[in-house]
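We modelled the chain as a single entity of 357 amino acids. Its sequence is:
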Amino acid sequence: MIELGDQGVAKMRKKWIAVLAAAMVLTAGCSSKETEKKEATEHKEKEIEVDEVVAPEELPYQFPLTGVGAAEESSDRAVAVVVNNHPKARPQSGLHKADVVHEVLAEGDVTRFVAIFQSEQPEKIGPVRSAREYFIDLASGFDSFFIAHGYSPEAKEMLERGEIDNINGMQYDGTLFKRADFRKAPHNSYITYKNIVKGAETRGYALDEAPAPAVFLSSEEAGQLEGTPAVEFMVKYGSPSFDAIYEYDTDEQKYHRFNGSEETVDLETKDPVLLDNILVVQMDHQVIDSAGRKVIDMASGGKGYLFQKGKVNEIQWKNETGRIVPYKDGVKAGFVPGKTWINIVPSISDVSFDSQQ
């Protein structure tokens, strides 16, 4: 059930944090012509940057996974990295530049991220964690070059069969993957984008074919989105350490992400993760062994919510060539140009939100 109310954002935020805390007990003008010309040029460039986000159709090309305008056609291959989300691994590096991030359970109530990079290339990504078979399935939907450090027995078999181009920290620990001295294993493995490219070259993998584009709304369509107001909501994963809160910023027209009171930001730059689309989807989860490893049904489709522009709509999701695609009223629901976060949950009842006009 959708939980609706009329509390403000400040009260809402306090409520979510209180819920998590309770569970934890049981986060000068220039005159020269050259200067004037330079300022005019910089102003024009800023206008172009705004157009790239607000009106991507005004530029000749779009990045395939964000829909954001680009001056040149992108031919870069997508790169998928399994990123650690343990509290000891936060804040992470590079997540703010991912086009798409999947948040999904591993063993127990611990979530990990499968981050897809294409339009931007962060200098460093991590901490990198081990693969699960369904992580590989998610990465395969984008024909990604897959990066992980370690693997479950099932994932190891898939990688050894060559089901996806990859490099793994089990073979390249200390060379392509570096251990940070300010964190302890297994929360300290990092890889630079330069070493990702080097790893692909070493293994003979091409990185010059862009993924198929997602479906995006035009600026006009995005501005006319309808739905139930949802300026703040929480996705529960069974542990307050991993429950996620999303808060809509009406000025930026983007969502911020939090674990409790702690915002998801980049370790090095402190830049926040800013999201234009948050897709929450219900999938059947089954525990398959004593270690708590899971099988997740990513093929059958099912219920979900799509949060955009401070509003939410109920959707049905389908698996199309390995990707999770939202449908509303039998038609594909386009994404707002920008970055997307996909929360995969065992039950859609794990989502709760309040509203504010």
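As a brief sanity check on the tokenised model: Helices lie at 9-25, 33-54, 133-140, 153-160, 169-172, 193-203, 219-223. The CA atoms of residues 77 and 210 lie 5 Å apart.
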